[in-house]
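FORM 12-B: Structure-to-Sequence Request
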């Protein structure tokens, strides 16, 4: 990052933890020193949160980097840790999941019931011939059976590969083939935007090219008619008639727990492999530490889909290992109305809410009047994940969802890291809006320059991880070389995350977006995140995306796409005036070098199905190229709208 820009976004606001939360926090400031003094000892103590059938002989084997083994020789069962031990401790009647379907139907599932369902599913899978080490693909909507299916696989040592229900037959085919899955668990469909959305036909299409699949287990959710073949079994006829008795067998700490594919923007998806003991240790610890989770009293809600790593680690494994009570919701935030999320918070008394910046910015666009119509007083802690959260979105979240007083934890991590890595601790950290702040206890993250040297405070560069961590990916499924090349070759002996970052004058870390998105304007590196945050800090803007487009004089020029807030007038002259104001606003905030060449006012931005902005496609538009691969796009009509408007606004 250039010196000129490294410190331009001067966000100086800082919010100390509420006194009562700090006094009663699960984790206090001493955790940092404790972990720094003895990192492996620290993780060993966290591993003791779990119930192991056999203790490990060695905490970490790093003799063959980058292939790590954690808790070597230890044995445990993940489902036992998430279910049986809570039931055995007399907590069987505690609600595990308050589930709400999009049409408004509800289910309340206790730990005892979740345990029963998981045992039945484990027996049913075993009857279908699934044994430890086999792969099972899960392609389901957000129904409780999704969590049950994952836990049942874990229980019998089968490796699950969850494929997000919005993916196409092609994407599903690739993932089933890559993992050679033996069984697919799916549903007739789910409910989205007020109507049934079919899944089974996509599986049928995929299966034409997936000879490894022997059986398909089908949950009935929508009741719509589906085609049927001899491989298909109804869930309610197979699982729900199976025995409820099942004894969990222990597995090695390094037994493969799941594969989850990251949709690379250009390349073939990577099957990220996670294993058992270290993964559960870090997801359990971070749920306890970062959410300050008190399982007896909290009601936790993570709005992610189970098809993403956030759903794996912070709907299924982390919360259930802690015995949490949580909400699970099937549908979209604006069905049947834009207050649906806040209605859910109020109905279940949600105390901890974990969501994504894209959702917060959408709520900003809809206006603060909507959360104001609901009682959100139960909320005591707010979390964010998935993208950098712009300072103004952070402030809005605190103000209009957190009543101006609730702490926010901005958690940086990746599918590859398995669990949170950089985040405030809610009872300790004086959080700055837009900063993920500091590596969690036991984690050594750093910001380095091109040469891999740590940058001083005030500097910017690349985010790396210097030491292995328990929930790290173990490899890319079937491709050790690609694992080494992608993550361990950019800097000697360090994990390269692919994100740009800066360290501010106090040493706190700010994420600047994917390094592929950084712009080079007249020789200056400018981060998309900083220009986007400057735009969002204007009172008329809810959301913005910024790209570098080839420019004959400056190399690259900044082209911005901005979504105005709900009531802003963008017609004719008012629109022209707003664009001029916004260009000047960015120049004033960040310096003249960051002034966008062009700003377009748009209604929507192209996003991946997990809500991340796809700047690559906007770059195609800005450079008047035909669009590249749009298969991971959430809503493909968005691009037509944006392309047709191009050339209009300047
Ligand atoms: C958990 C998840 C990982 C990428 C990551 C980064 C971005 C996630 C962030 C964040 C800034 C945060 N990211 N959390 N950027 N601040 N708090 O999202 O995993 O889907 O694999 O994406 O998301 O760019 O590298 P995944």
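FORM 12-B RESPONSE
SEQUENCE OUT:
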């Amino acid at each position: 990052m250039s010196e000129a820009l490294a410190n331009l976004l001067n966000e100086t606001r800082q919010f100390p933890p509420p006194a009562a939360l700090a006094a009663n926090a699960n984790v206090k400031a001493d955790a940092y020193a404790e972990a720094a003094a003895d990192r492996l000892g620290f993780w060993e103590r966290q591993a003791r949160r779990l119930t192991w059938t056999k203790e490990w002989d060695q905490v970490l084997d790093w003799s063959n980097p980058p292939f790590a083994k954690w808790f070597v020789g230890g044995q445990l069962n993940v489902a036992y840790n998430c279910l049986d031990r809570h039931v055995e401790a007399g907590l069987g009647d505690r609600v595990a999941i308050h589930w709400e379907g999009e049409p408004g139907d509800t289910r309340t599932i206790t730990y005892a019931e979740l345990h029963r369902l998981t045992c039945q599913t484990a027996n049913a899978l075993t009857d279908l011939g699934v044994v430890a080490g086999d792969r099972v693909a899960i392609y389901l909507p957000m129904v409780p059976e999704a969590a049950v299916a994952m836990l049942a696989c874990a229980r019998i040592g089968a490796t699950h590969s969850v494929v997000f229900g919005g993916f196409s037959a092609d994407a599903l085919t690739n993932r089933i083939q890559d993992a050679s899955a033996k069984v697919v668990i799916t549903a007739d469909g789910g409910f989205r935007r007020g109507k049934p959305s079919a899944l089974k036909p996509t599986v049928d299409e995929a299966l034409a090219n997936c000879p490894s699949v022997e059986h398909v287990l089908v949950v009935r959710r929508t009741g719509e008619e589906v085609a049927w073949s001899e491989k298909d079994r109804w869930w309610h006829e197979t699982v729900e008639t199976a025995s409820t008795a099942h004894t969990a067998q222990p597995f090695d700490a390094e037994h493969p727990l799941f594969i989850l594919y990251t949709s690379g923007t250009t390349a073939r998806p990577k099957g990220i492999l996670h294993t058992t003991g270290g993964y559960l240790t870090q997801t359990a610890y971070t749920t306890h530490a970062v959410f300050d989770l008190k399982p007896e009293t909290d009601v936790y809600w993570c709005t992610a889909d189970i098809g993403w790593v956030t759903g794996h680690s912070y709907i299924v494994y982390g919360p259930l290992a802690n015995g949490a009570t949580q909400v699970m919701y099937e549908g979209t935030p604006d069905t049947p109305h834009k207050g649906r999320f806040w209605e859910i918070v109020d109905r279940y008394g949600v105390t901890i809410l974990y969501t994504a910046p894209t959702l917060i910015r959408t709520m900003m666009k809809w206006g603060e009047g909507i959360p104001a119509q609901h009682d959100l007083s139960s909320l005591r802690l707010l979390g964010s994940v998935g993208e950098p959260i712009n300072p103004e979105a952070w402030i809005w979240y605190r103000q209009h969802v957190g009543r101006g007083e609730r702490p926010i934890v901005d958690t940086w991590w990746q599918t590859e890291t398995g669990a949170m890595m950089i985040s405030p601790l809610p009872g300790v950290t004086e959080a700055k809006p837009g900063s993920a702040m500091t590596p969690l206890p036991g984690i050594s993250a750093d910001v380095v320059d091109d040469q891999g040297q740590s940058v001083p405070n005030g500097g910017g560069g690349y985010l790396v991880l210097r030491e292995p961590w328990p929930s790290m990916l173990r490899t890319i499924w079937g491709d050790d070389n690609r694992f080494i090349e992608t993550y361990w070759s950019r800097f000697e002996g360090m994990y390269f995350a692919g994100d740009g970052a800066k360290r501010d004058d106090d040493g706190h870390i700010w994420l600047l977006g994917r390094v592929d998105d950084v712009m080079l304007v007249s020789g200056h590196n400018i981060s998309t995140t900083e220009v986007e945050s400057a735009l969002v800090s204007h009172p008329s803007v809810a959301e913005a995306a910024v790209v570098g487009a080839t420019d004959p004089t400056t190399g690259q020029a900044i082209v911005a796409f901005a979504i105005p807030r709900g009531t802003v007038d963008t017609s004719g002259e008012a629109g022209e005036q707003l664009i001029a104001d916004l260009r000047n606003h960015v120049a004033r905030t960040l310096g003249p070098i960051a002034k966008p060449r062009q700003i377009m006012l748009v209604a929507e931005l192209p996003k991946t199905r997990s809500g991340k902005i796809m700047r690559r496609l906007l770059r195609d538009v800005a450079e008047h190229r035909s669009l590249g691969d749009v298969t991971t796009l959430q809503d493909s009509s968005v691009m037509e709208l944006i392309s047709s408007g191009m050339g209009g606004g300047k």
